[in-house]
């Protein structure tokens, strides 16, 4: 039932919002072909469930009189869909066409004439040259998920051939004309209803679209659609909100997504462009939630390090600390002073953060004495990668700069602390941050969707993911 995953992406979706998307998705002709293959398997299976009603009637035959006949137990024994196409109609949507299909049936016949004479047998029937054409319309429900329906379905039966078994051969011609007409009418009506049911059934799968995906205890990400898709002969593009929100609170960040365009690449089934806006909305959310803060204690420093978080080590650089607070352990509070800024340039992703570092001396009774507050400007390089159906990352330190904000122990040369804080960032803060970044956040997906042959490029203002897709259930 997973062709819905493509149908959701290849038809006109009427929406009223006009904001720039934070995420763009492009489905290519290669992706449509994969969806067609899945769709045909589903439709063929569904066609085999057609129920042809029993047929009966009376035919007047010269010299014999009225002949009563009935056709019963008609069952589908085979269905073939040798040729089908799934085409994008620029500016409109998607059209499904099935040509030269056939349906084979088996059933029983029975006649009664001259009041007492009865005859019976079986027959095999084949409907050939069957064509089905339908358009798929998609609307958005109240949650931002697409809802599909079949419109403008047309079915035509090419020819009907019948082979009878048993009974008097002169009776066969009585049935042929009747069967041809009745069967055409029954099939043409049922097939379009069946196609409508197949499309409607896809709505259960469409509900798996992660319009709002939970990231962790702090954040969700929203993938609702913000504009009608752009349909061309070769592909379709969807614009999605692609915005992080604090869990339970939809507070807009003080910035908006900028317009960006996906390149004309078509080698993969699917392309996903994730803008810097999406990453920066995540930074806004985590900073707002207070999640970008960390207490650092001595037990977090590698045991073999000569630098310890105590007043003795810091007293080497700031003698007044050792004099006023001799023999005490210390702790540091590192927290962002404003929202970190994520920048995407070709082959380069960076994060710039402005933090404060507050140092405390820990007294034996666990009370804290503030020693100083530093401003810490950092720039890190980010490696972005796809893990499963999530976008993940890892960072490494580029540079840092310290300035003194407040001192409770008198003036001291801040640059003397560079080596300490280089160590703290590299062996404590960044590894902890990378553990969280490795968990990643969900990409827009449908159902049991698996990404394969995935490639990622960092481009100007966005990250481009090119991937093929498999559905596993």
TrEMBL record:
Keywords assigned by UniProt, alphabetized: Antibiotic, Antimicrobial, Disulfide bond, Glycoprotein, Immunity, Innate immunity, Secreted, Signal
Example GO molecular function: lipid binding
Domain named Lipid-binding serum glycoprotein C-terminal: residues: 264-467
S-S pairs: 153-192
One Pfam family this sequence matches: LBP_BPI_CETP_C
GO biological process, one term: innate immune response
Signal peptide residues on this chain, from the entry's feature table: 1-18
Lipid-binding serum glycoprotein N-terminal domain boundaries: 26-249
Top-rank lineage group of the source organism: Eukaryota
Primary localization class, coarse: secreted
Protein's name in the database: Bactericidal permeability-increasing protein
Subcellular locations according to the entry: Secreted
Subunit structure: Monomer. Homodimer; disulfide-linked.
One GO CC annotation: extracellular space
Function: The cytotoxic action of BPI is limited to many species of Gram-negative bacteria; this specificity may be explained by a strong affinity of the very basic N-terminal half for the negatively charged lipopolysaccharides that are unique to the Gram-negative bacterial outer envelope.
Domain-related comment: The N-terminal region may be exposed to the interior of the granule, whereas the C-terminal portion may be embedded in the membrane. During phagocytosis and degranulation, proteases may be released and activated and cleave BPI at the junction of the N- and C-terminal portions of the molecule, providing controlled release of the N-terminal antibacterial fragment when bacteria are ingested. The N- and C-terminal barrels adopt an identical fold despite having only 13% of conserved residues.
Record gene name: LOC117730553
Organism this protein belongs to: Cyclopterus lumpus (Lumpsucker)
The family this protein is said to belong to: Belongs to the BPI/LBP/Plunc superfamily. BPI/LBP family.
């Amino acid at each position: 039932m997973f062709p819905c995953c493509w149908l959701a992406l290849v038809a006109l979706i009427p929406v009223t919002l006009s904001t720039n998307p934070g995420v763009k998705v492009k489905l290519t002709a290669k992706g449509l072909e994969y969806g067609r293959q899945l769709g045909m398997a589903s439709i063929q299976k569904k066609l085999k469930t057609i129920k042809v009603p029993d047929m009966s009637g009376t035919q007047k035959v010269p010299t014999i009189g009225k002949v009563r006949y009935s056709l019963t137990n008609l069952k589908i024994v085979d269905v073939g869909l040798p040729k089908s196409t799934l085409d994008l109609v620029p500016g409109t949507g998607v059209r499904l066409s099935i040509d030269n299909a056939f349906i084979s049936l088996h059933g029983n016949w029975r006649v009664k004439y001259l009041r007492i004479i009865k005859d019976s047998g079986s027959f095999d029937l084949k409907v050939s040259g069957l064509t089905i054409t339908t358009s798929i319309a998609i609307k958005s429900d109240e949650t931002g998920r697409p809802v599909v329906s079949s419109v403008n379905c047309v079915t035509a039966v090419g020819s009907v051939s019948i082979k009878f078994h048993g009974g008097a051969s002169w009776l066969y011609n009585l049935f042929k004309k009747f069967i041809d007409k009745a069967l055409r009418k029954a099939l043409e009506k049922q097939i379009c209803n069946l196609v409508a049911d197949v499309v409607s059934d896809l709505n259960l799968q469409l509900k798996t679209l992660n319009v709002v995906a939970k990231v962790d205890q702090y954040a969700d990400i929203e993938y609702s659609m913000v504009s009608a898709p752009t349909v061309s002969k070769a592909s379709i593009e969807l614009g999605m909100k692609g915005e992080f929100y604090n869990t339970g609170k939809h507070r807009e960040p003080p910035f908006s997504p900028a317009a960006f365009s996906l390149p004309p690449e078509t080698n993969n089934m699917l392309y996903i462009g994730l803008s810097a806006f999406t990453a920066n909305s995540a930074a806004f959310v985590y900073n707002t939630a207070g999640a970008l803060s960390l207490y650092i204690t001595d037990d977090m420093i590698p045991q073999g390090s000569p630098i310890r978080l105590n007043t003795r080590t810091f007293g080497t650089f700031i003698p007044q600390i050792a004099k006023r607070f001799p023999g005490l352990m210390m702790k540091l509070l590192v927290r962002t002073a404003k929202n970190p800024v994520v920048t995407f340039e070709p082959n380069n992703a960076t994060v710039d953060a402005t933090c404060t570092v507050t140092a405390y001396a820990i007294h034996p009774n666990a009370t804290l004495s503030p020693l100083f507050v530093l401003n810490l400007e950092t720039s890190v390089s980010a490696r972005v990668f796809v893990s499963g159906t999530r976008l993940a990352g890892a960072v490494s330190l580029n540079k840092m700069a310290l300035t003194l904000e407040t001192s409770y122990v008198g003036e001291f040369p801040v640059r003397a602390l560079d080596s300490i804080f280089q160590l703290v960032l590299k062996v404590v803060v960044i590894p902890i941050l990378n553990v969280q970044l490795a968990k990643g956040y969900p990409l827009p997906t449908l159902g049991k969707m698996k990404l394969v042959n995935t490639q990622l490029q960092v481009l100007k203002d966005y990250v481009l993911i090119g991937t093929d897709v498999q559905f596993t259930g």
